[in-house]
Amino acid sequence: MANFEALSQSVISGKEAQVKEQTQAMVAAGTNPLEIINNGLIAGMNVVGARFKNGEMFVPEVLMAAKSMAAGIEIVKPLIADKDMPSVGKILIGTVKGDLHDIGKNLVAMMLESGGFKVVNLGIDIAPEKFVAAVQEHHPDIVAMSALLTTTMLHMKDTIELIKEEGLKVKCIVGGAPISQDFADEIGADGFAPDAASAVELCKKLLGK
Ligand code: B1M
User: How far is CA 121 from the centre of its chain?
Assistant: First the structure.
C-alpha cells in the first residue's frame, strides 16, 4: 500500500533524497503516477503553502520543500503523457522592466507549479513588449507580474495597457513588496497577491478552480 502521507511529510520537511527514494519505491510498486503527484507530492506542497501563509514556515524552508517536490515530479513525469499531466491553467510570470529582483517571483512560480499550474517563467527585466510577445506565443490564462522597486512598479501599468491595446484576452495579476490592492485596482489589474500562497489561491479563484 502506497504511503502518500509519508511522501507528503518528506516534501513538507524538504527532504529531497527521501522524496526521491519514496517516489522511486512507489513507481517500482506500480502506484499510479498521477496519484503519486496529487496525493503525495502536491498534497505536501499544499500544506507548505498554508503554513507559509500563516507564518509557520519561512522562505528557505519553502524553497527546500518546492525543490524536493520538483525532484519527485521529475521521477514521475516520464511515466505520464504530457496531455495527462495535471494542469489547472497556464501562467506567464516575469519581473517587470528595469527590475532585477527574482527571489520572490521564483518562489511564486514554484508554488504555482506545485499547485498544478503550468508556468512559463520569463525571468527578470521584462519590458511590456516582451510580455505581449510571450502572451502571443504561449497563450497563458494569466500574466503574473512582479516588482520590488517603487521606480519599476509603474511598468505594470504600461504592460497591462499594452496587453489591452493589442486586444489580448488574458487576466493580469500583480505582486511584490511595494504593491497593494489599491495600486492593483488603480492600474486595472485583475488581482493582487501579497505572497506566493495567496498567488496560487488568486489564480485558482480567477480561473474558477
Ligand atoms: Co534590492 N531593494 N535593490 N536587491 N532588495 C529592495 C527591494 C529594497 C526594499 C531594499 C531597501 O532599500 N530596504 C529596495 C527597494 C526600495 C524601493 O523601491 N521601495 C531595494 C533597492 C533600492 C535595490 C537597488 C536599487 C539597490 C542599488 O543598487 N542601489 C538595486 C536595484 C536593482 C534592480 O532591480 N534594478 C537592488 C538590487 C538587489 C540585489 C540584486 C542585490 C538583490 C536581488 C537579488 C535577486 O533577486 N536575485 C536585492 C535584494 C535581495 C533585496 C531585498 C534585500 C530582498 C528581496 C527579496 O528577495 N525578498 C529587498 C529588501 C527586503 O525586501 N527586505 C530589496 C524575499 C522575497 C521572498 O520576498 O520579493 O517580497 P519578495 O516576494 C514575496 C512577495 O512580495 C510576493 O510573494 C513573494 C513570496 O511571498 N510576490 C508576488 C513577489 N512577486 C510577486 C508576484 C506576484 C504575486 C506575489 O504575481 C502576481
Answer: 9
What distance in angstroms lies between residue 103's CA and the mean position of ligand 1's atoms?
Answer: 8
User: Would you tell me how many other CB atoms lie within 10 Å of the CB of residue 157?
Assistant: 17
- SS3 state of residue 127: coil
Q: Is 178 in the pocket of ligand 1 (CB under 6 A)?
A: yes
Structural domains of the chain, ranges and CATH numbers in brackets:
4-84 (1.10.1240.10), 89-206 (3.40.50.280)
At 102, is the secondary structure helix, strand, or coil?
Answer: coil
Is 140 in a helix, a strand, or coil? coil
Q: Are strands 118-126 and 90-96 parallel, antiparallel or unpaired?
A: parallel
- Measured distance CA(197)–CA(201) in Å, rounded: 7
Q: What is the C-alpha to C-alpha distance for residues 202 and 209, in angstroms, rounded to an integer?
A: 10
The tens place of each residue's pLDDT in the chain, 209 residues long, gives 679 999 999 999 999 999 999 999 999 999 998 899 889 998 898 899 889 889 999 989 999 998 998 899 889 888 876 666 668 899 999 999 999 998 889 889 988 887 889 999 999 999 999 999 999 999 999 999 999 999 999 999 999 999 999 999 999 999 999 999 999 999 999 999 998 889 999 999 999 98
Q: What separation in Å is there between the alpha carbon of 124 and the centre of ligand 1?
A: 12
Residue 181: other Cβ atoms inside 10 A: 13
Whether ligand 1 lies within 6 angstroms of the CB of 98 is answered as yes
